[in-house]
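Hi R.,

Here's the chain you asked about this morning:
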Amino acid sequence: MKEKSIFSLCITIAMLMGAILIFQPYFGFAQQSTTPHNGQHDFDFNFGKWRTHIQSLQHPLSGSTTWAKLEGTVVVRKVWDGRASLEEIEADGPAGHFEGTTLFLYNPKSHQWSQTFANSDAGSLEIPAIGEFKNGRGEFYSQEVYHGRAVLVRGIWSEIKTDTHRFEQAYSNDGGKTWETNFIANLERYK
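And here is the predicted structure, written out as tokens:
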């Protein structure tokens, strides 16, 4: 019974943290400058067809250092003149076949993006990660329950060039004090 109460408390805390992240623009925490950056075109670099090299940590938050490698294709198409985009991922490796879809949606009021992932195996949408780009780097945050534990999730878009970029995801089970990277995708544009 005590474990169930602790689990419920963790879920409640995770949901509150998610609400804070999602609603922070409305309370004035997200924007520090007087003129917010219009980030409507921040994801324009991602449009097109990409070759992806994926590394996925097999057992996050367990001390494991075993990574699965996959190779595949990512196709990203513009929606609503770039205020949204749809990404389709398909990759294969020794561990099997992987398919996923991500919806990117720009919020002109908060000047932030949401990034919502769906994995074909799970058949469900994840909680959207909310974030923005600063100095050529995008940081997105959300929370999820991983193996019965509430964890924070951070996604980083970096090393953005015309024909390459990188995405990595990390988990934190200590409120964001430390992060463990569990997913890395390096992308190269098909020519």
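One quick note: The mean pLDDT is 86.

Cheers,
M.
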